[in-house]
Predict the 3D structure of the following.
Amino acid sequence: MIGPNHYLFLSAIVFTIGAVGVLTRRNVIIIFMSIELMLNAVNLNLIAFSAHLQDLAGQVFVVFVITVAAAEAAVGLGIVIALFRNRETINMDEIDLMRG
Amino acid sequence: MDLNYAALLPEILLAVAGILLMLAIPVLPSRQQVRLGYAASLALAAALVTALLQWGDHGPAFFGMVSMDALGGAARILFLVSSAAVALISVSYLKRERLRHGEYFPLLLMATVGMSLMAVSADLIMTFLGLEILSISSYVLAGYRRGDPRSNESALKYFLLGAFSTAFMLYGIALLYGAAGSTKYAGIAEAATQGQAETATFLLGLGLLLVGFGFKAALAPLHVWTPDVYQGAPVPITAHLAVGSKAAVLITLLRLLHQVFPASADQWQTLLWIASAATMIIGNVAALTQTDVKRLLAYSSIAHAGYILLGVIANSPRGAQGVLFYLAAYSLMTLGAFAVVQVFARREERFTKLEDFRGIGYRHPLLSVSLTIFLLSLIGIPPTAGFYGKLFLFSAAVEADLVALVILAVLASAVGLYYYLQLIVLMFMKEAASPPEPVPVPLAARIVILLMAAGTLYLGVYPAQVLSIAGEAAGL
Amino acid sequence: METYLFYALALILVTFSILTVTARNPVRSAVYLVSALLAVAGFFFLLEAEFVGAVQVLVYVGGIMVLFLFVIMLVSIEALDRQPKVSRQWRTGVVLAVVLCLELSLLIFRGTVSLEEGLAEPGIITTTETMNTEAVGTVLYSTYLLPFEIASVLLLVAIVGAVVLAKKEI
């Protein structure tokens, strides 16, 4: 029988993969996609708990998380476009104008 | 439990005003777009009046999603004042930098709605949404100078680290939901007292939640994004990030830790002890070598968040009172300092280096004297707001047996003395390097600077009234 | 049956997650991510959360990922070749990841017992009584009315923000 622990473990793995992606990749868009992966790990967790607890709050929360992900995607990609227009790069290592 | 729309009247007012402002963009001729800024300030003032009239209203609203209490009421007033000041210093900024007014002010109003909702929320879902409204509008505002690569970079860094920290916070919330079976503050607090607080799932959830909040409040070692973001953002937005946004995160953190997680106090006190010590040390030491005034104030704001944590760690009503009073004092002096920087920076923010302030003391007395007041207050010298702020905060911490941390805070403040005084000395004791250039001080910015200076001195002389309001909000 | 489906979907999810973060080309990365998101949707259906599963497919896969692909096409094709695959700080990243993974699995395995010990309080509406979509809809428009309305403010902010930042001339 598959219990919430299986889902907890799976989502921990996916979350970690996403976090590694954020920390190791330098392409802004791939970093952003890794963050989406982390959010999905969270969603998986929430739905598993929701099923386990027989409580709908988790499912409602996932709807809001997806809404927020959509909003973040729109704004984040807007920022990427604005940056690319001025700098012609989306590599984090090159995005370093300010030093103190 | 019913809807009770009236409880959120200030927020509804702001949201409607934001939408109306956007509708007004195509109607107004381009020369009159400046009026949008004043309209936004008026909306904030109206919301402030409403919030003041509602002071003392308590109870849940919207099916228990939000809960009105004195803490939320006080926080709301603080955010509205801060946003109004930001709006007023933005008007001349946008005009000078030839940026569009139309979208800027609605975004600022919505950010204020987000901050308010965080402070009155009674459910982690609501808190999360409030935080996201605040964050997303702040990402956009940080990148509002679209043609300036520094502003792009600021927005991008803020966005990526903000989204990353959101993921951690959400993971924490998910685990807490699993452990407690509810996302409501009351439900989590109840589950915690029934033994759930000891489980690894609960503690891990709390830890990840704190990581998320640590990022958003720029606590060491999660502060690395702050200097770049603050330096690259438009000056009024830097003020918004350093004051309103930071205060919203810290007040929400205070409410969560004191009201929802008192059962896990041992654990989070240890974590925050380390974070507070690191934040104070890193903020003050890194500020010593800065040459850009925006960056200097960024590190200074990091350091002040470290002091504020003292009151959170104290885990007592006196500590919460200290936090709220300090936030009020900090808001006044930081907003004032950024208002001066905004005016002084002039077109395209050319003059933000410390060297640019050399010898301006007698040439621009309004700017230099008021900046001196703000800096003295940031140091914590009487008779300014910062002195009483530190006094109340540190005494609450001593009462809670945090003597070592208080000693550390006093030492860190002493380090701060150096870089704040350095700027004052530069203004008054040194000869200017370049021939004088006029610095126009627009009326709205002048009003903000004078009001903030007056407020800083008022709190430094008569702290009693604000202290009693903070005490009421803290449940004393 | 449920067990087999779980492991099959888990295998797909983990494989495509790894591919997403390791792919050199962002377009491939996006396509792998789409597959991973579909696997997550599969889990949602498996857990009888049909509404959220449908939202996942429609909004995430159909909306957000298409936006990603658009921007990748717009931005990075020519910039791709001169990019190092991983950053200068990959070692820190890997160390952090290993620590994080160990900690998470340790804590989850230790927390296992307490989590399963009778936490299943009855929810607002139990999912078994009515259709899932109907139940979610009811809750969304009653208890969670305020977050629902606030989400529209959030989306408004995002629309305005995206236009302000990305449009050539405003």
Notes: The longest helix of chain C spans residues 90-116.
